[in-house]
């Protein structure tokens, strides 16, 4: 009976993970434009997402009702919009992210100030309205027309869990550039511009040289907040269209299809926490030779720490395998910091000797690997000194003191004997 109950609870937990993050709200200038992205949203539906389309200015628009979020993920495909309908505004979207939900934002060269400000809140600086990314060396020819703003990009982040790949075909991009601060710890350039690209505003007025050139340009940026909420800011709306999915382009004389379909769908699934999600559970520790978890330890005890880590993809859990998860045993400062060993089945463990320092320690696991959700675990445990009856009868370190005491006694008796029996 207990085994059946455990199995039922585990199944419910897996189903809960599988159903989490499935309700997606898509905001468009008008719902009829959804046809331009039919393959993209069709792939999301095939992955199990419940996609709802609404106009960005819909008066009935709302993300939250009676304290409950109505959606798990938000897609913004309305770059020209200066505001939102209903009860949605920038602060509502930020609260949506703060509560652990995800946002996919795609803009273009006509990006509004409102969406530029929203992207800035995510830590991504989108270039000025009207600017475009140009490349006179790595551009593509589409439908027989050469377009220097149609970038054939291939500089993908080295994180297959985020973007899939590597791809032999180029990812087509036509839109606006972005940058991220150099000291940013949360943002990642998912798709970088070629070294020959630059951002520029074409106008009749002579413009000063742009400072946004080459590797400084981010075409697609991903941000994972500290609460594991995910945001993606794409500078091109066209890259999600059926036209770019089916395009046959010519780059430097070579013809090929594009990788836009695989790239955008994989990235969207990652953004909606359908990929790259780590779940840590069953933290435990015990003395070597015992299976019971004690209330605390004695200095110099030999202990073992264990934790289970699984990767969830598409609602299916599988053991996570990595060599870079570390355990720290901390009292103000780490006394022990060592990598955990894995058994290939999702269990990570470490055997170590408790330091010869007593006090309140804590186990601490702080794991962040690009493309995966963060793991932060803490568990407090006291460490006590030896009791008076737990020491050895004679301590090796005390031999000099034993010798000095014995020498004093011998000297006393020798002096007394000499005083009493010597005239």
TrEMBL record:
Residues 285-422 form the OST48 middle domain. Belongs to the DDOST 48 kDa subunit family. This is Dolichyl-diphosphooligosaccharide--protein glycosyltransferase 48 kDa subunit. Keywords: Endoplasmic reticulum, Membrane, Signal, Transmembrane, Transmembrane helix. It comes from Volvox carteri f. nagariensis. It is a single-pass type I membrane protein. One of its GO terms (cellular component) is oligosaccharyltransferase complex. The chain crosses the membrane at residues 399-421. It comes from the Eukaryota. PANTHER family: DOLICHYL-DIPHOSPHOOLIGOSACCHARIDE--PROTEIN GLYCOSYLTRANSFERASE 48 KDA SUBUNIT. Subunit of the oligosaccharyl transferase (OST) complex that catalyzes the initial transfer of a defined glycan (Glc(3)Man(9)GlcNAc(2) in eukaryotes) from the lipid carrier dolichol-pyrophosphate to an asparagine residue within an Asn-X-Ser/Thr consensus motif in nascent polypeptide chains, the first step in protein N-glycosylation. N-glycosylation occurs cotranslationally and the complex associates with the Sec61 complex at the channel-forming translocon complex that mediates protein translocation across the endoplasmic reticulum (ER). Pfam families: OST48_MD, OST48_N. Component of the oligosaccharyltransferase (OST) complex. The lineage of its organism: Eukaryota, Viridiplantae, Chlorophyta, core chlorophytes, Chlorophyceae. The keyword Signal applies.
């Amino acid at each position: 009976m207990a085994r059946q109950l455990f199995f039922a609870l585990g199944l419910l937990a897996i189903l809960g993970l599988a159903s989490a993050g499935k309700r997606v709200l898509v905001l468009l200038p008008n719902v009829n434009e959804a046809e331009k992205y039919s393959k993209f949203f069709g792939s999301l539906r095939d992955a199990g997402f419940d996609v709802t389309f609404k106009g960005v200015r819909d008066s009935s628009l709302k993300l939250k009702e009676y304290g409950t979020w109505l959606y798990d993920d938000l897609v913004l495909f309305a770059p020209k919009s200066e505001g939102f309908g209903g009860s949605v505004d920038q602060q509502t979207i930020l609260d949506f992210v703060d509560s652990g939900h995800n946002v996919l934002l795609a803009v273009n060269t006509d990006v509004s100030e409102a969406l530029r400000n929203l992207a800035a809140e995510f830590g991504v600086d989108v270039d000025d309205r009207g600017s475009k990314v140009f490349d006179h060396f790595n551009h593509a020819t589409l439908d027989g027309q050469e377009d220097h703003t149609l970038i054939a990009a291939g500089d993908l982040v080295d994180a297959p869990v985020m973007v899939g790949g590597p791809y032999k075909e180029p990812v087509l991009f036509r839109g606006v550039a972005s940058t991220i601060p150099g000291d940013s710890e949360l943002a990642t350039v998912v798709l970088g511009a070629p070294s020959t690209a630059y951002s520029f505003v074409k106008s009749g007025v002579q413009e000063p040289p742009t400072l946004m050139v080459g590797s400084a340009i981010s075409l697609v940026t991903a941000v994972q907040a500290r609460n594991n909420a995910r945001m993606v800011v794409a500078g091109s709306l066209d890259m999600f269209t059926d036209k770019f999915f089916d395009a046959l382009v010519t780059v430097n004389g070579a013809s090929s299809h594009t990788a836009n379909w695989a790239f955008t769908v994989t990235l969207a699934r990652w953004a909606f926490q359908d990929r790259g999600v780590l779940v840590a559970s069953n933290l435990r520790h015990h003395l070597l030779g015992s299976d019971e978890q004690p209330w605390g330890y004695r200095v110099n005890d030999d202990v073992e720490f264990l934790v289970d880590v699984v990767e969830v993809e598409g609602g299916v859990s599988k053991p996570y395998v990595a060599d870079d998860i570390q355990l720290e045993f901390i009292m103000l400062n780490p006394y022990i910091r060592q990598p955990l060993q894995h058994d290939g089945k999702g269990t990570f463990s470490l055997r170590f000797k408790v330091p010869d320092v007593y006090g309140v320690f804590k186990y601490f696991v702080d794991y962040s690997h690009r493309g995966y959700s963060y793991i932060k675990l803490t568990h407090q445990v006291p460490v006590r000194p030896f009791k008076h009856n737990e020491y050895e009868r004679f301590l090796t370190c005390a031999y000099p003191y034993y010798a000095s005491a014995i020498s004093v006694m011998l000297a006393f008796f020798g002096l007394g004997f000499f005083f009493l029996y010597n005239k």
